[in-house]
TrEMBL record:
<dbReference type="InterPro" id="IPR003661">
    <property type="entry name" value="HisK_dim/P_dom"/>
</dbReference>
<feature type="transmembrane region" description="Helical">
    <location>
        <begin position="90"/>
        <end position="107"/>
    </location>
</feature>
<dbReference type="InterPro" id="IPR048437">
    <property type="entry name" value="MASE11"/>
</dbReference>
<feature type="transmembrane region" description="Helical">
    <location>
        <begin position="166"/>
        <end position="188"/>
    </location>
</feature>
<dbReference type="Pfam" id="PF20969">
    <property type="entry name" value="MASE11"/>
</dbReference>
<keyword id="KW-1133">Transmembrane helix</keyword>
<feature type="transmembrane region" description="Helical">
    <location>
        <begin position="135"/>
        <end position="154"/>
    </location>
</feature>
<feature type="domain" description="MASE11">
    <location>
        <begin position="27"/>
        <end position="191"/>
    </location>
</feature>
<protein>
    <recommendedName>
        <fullName>histidine kinase</fullName>
        <ecNumber>2.7.13.3</ecNumber>
    </recommendedName>
</protein>
<dbReference type="InterPro" id="IPR036097">
    <property type="entry name" value="HisK_dim/P_sf"/>
</dbReference>
<feature type="transmembrane region" description="Helical">
    <location>
        <begin position="60"/>
        <end position="78"/>
    </location>
</feature>
<keyword id="KW-0812">Transmembrane</keyword>
<feature type="transmembrane region" description="Helical">
    <location>
        <begin position="36"/>
        <end position="54"/>
    </location>
</feature>
<keyword id="KW-0472">Membrane</keyword>
Amino acid sequence: MEIWNKYTARIRQNILISSEETKDLKYWRDDMFSNTIIYIIPLSIIALIPSLLWAFESKLYIMIWIDILSVLVALFIGLKKRIKIKHRKLLFIGTVYFLSFSLIYFVGLNSTLYLLAACFLATFIYTFKNQYTPALLNCYISAFYIFAYYLNFTPSHRIDFKSSELFAVFSNLIFLSFLICSLVPKLFNGLDESFKNNIKHTQKIENQNKVLKDITWVQSHIVRTPLSRIMAICNLLKEKDNTEEEKTFLMDNIIVSSNELDNIIKDIVKKSETIHSAEN
């Protein structure tokens, strides 16, 4: 358990080091990417052994190197320090697409699910200028494979399939890819608006709390000074042996202290009005 905690802390520190502290939508997408890397590394290492055995038995030696390279890239993305998260994401997406295409090319159409997963992951963890970029990549890969298939450039597979099956599989892949690229950004736009509203609401509450703390401090400290002065002067005026000059001096001080207290109260009222205006 301690090893796992150190492992997850290392990856999160490497990936989220450049993320903003404000937990907005960008932060959560980066956090989701870090969690993806955290779980993909051990799972890919576990899956590597049977994949290598299968590739060796099938004499697909190039797939052995591709599988090993993919795992090493995942380790590099998660454990290497001082890399911008944008570059980590692009490297991860590129590796997933490269692995997916390699599986389709060397294994067959039953591996098209990896391209769909690549599209899904790319849309979730990265914001593309063109939201349909992952779907377009699947279009290009599908077209390239079909072109290579008809020119007999693809290796022979154990499972034969008809041309109609070829078009059916890739057309469904493209359809689902564009569907993902259409729906996921809409989901994120709604979440982004919700995050922004929550952040604004939190900031508003924090500002109001700050104003209330200022008002409390003013009431307990600044108001006390002129009020104590007025109370002390009133006690002095009760004395019967005060001369007229002393009484005039004391009355003048009461006026000064009263004006000072009045200004403080006006300042408190202004601060209170900022709270009410912020609520409205």
